[in-house]
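User: Hey, my collaborator sent me this sequence without any context and asked if I could get a structure. I don't really work with proteins. Can you help?
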Amino acid sequence: MAYNLLKGKKGIIFGALNDQSIAWKIAEKCYEEGAEIVLTNAPIALRMGEINKLAESCGNAPVIPADVTSNDDLKNLLTKSMEHFGGQVDFILHSVGMSMNMRKNNPYTALNYDFTHKTFDISAMSFHRVLQLAYQMDAIREWGSVVALTYIAAQRVFPDYNEMADAKALLESIGRSFGYNYAKKNKVRINTVSQSPTRTTAGSGVKGFEGFITFAEKMSPLGNATAEDCANYCVTLFSDLTKMVTMQNLFHDGGFSFTGVTAEVIEQMEK
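Assistant: No problem. I've predicted the 3D structure and written it out in structure-token form, which is a compact way to encode the shape of the chain:
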């Protein structure tokens, strides 16, 4: 059921790869709630062609390629988006992350630092880059909203999450620091959403990921939040209902983040 929470709003969605992507679900929900959107991803990801299906189902939304490590690409994205919308945007979703060390099976104690730099550049510094350019270009309308997706490994140790945990910690810090500056400039709010482990193309690349999901399910009083649940939550953050929420890392994880232990976990340990 739609509530028209985003009627008349215009936004940019980063990171929709396929229908398993959280960003894909968020794009669909934003459109369902009345928003107009622009879709973007890295040129290599767009060659897979699946995002065109999403664009068609979202009112033939424009698809604009952008390498998030390139200022020129991001300037082009923001410029073309504002041209398409005829003005500033109301919201931006940052759903971007990649770890070369995980892909190459390098453990945290033996990182390739060139890979690590790439991880930080794509997964965290890109968030600052998008915000800085939007700030300089005055691309986001007053009381607009920016959300980036993160994970609790930024606060707690999950050994196989590797240097991506460090990247997420940086991402969350950027959300706070830029949140202050953008609020002072133009009342723009910036938050990060710490989502339950979710079966996505990116998530499946983490060693022991199925174990992550099973453990989190047993440790979460409400169970794991799905991608669809996350989409609903992000819609509220893009809407005017949350206009005084900013600089927050918001846990969307069924209660996992504040649960010490559950009866299910104790029972499992005693077997």
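In plain terms: The chain has ten helices and six strands. You can pass these tokens on to your collaborator as they are.
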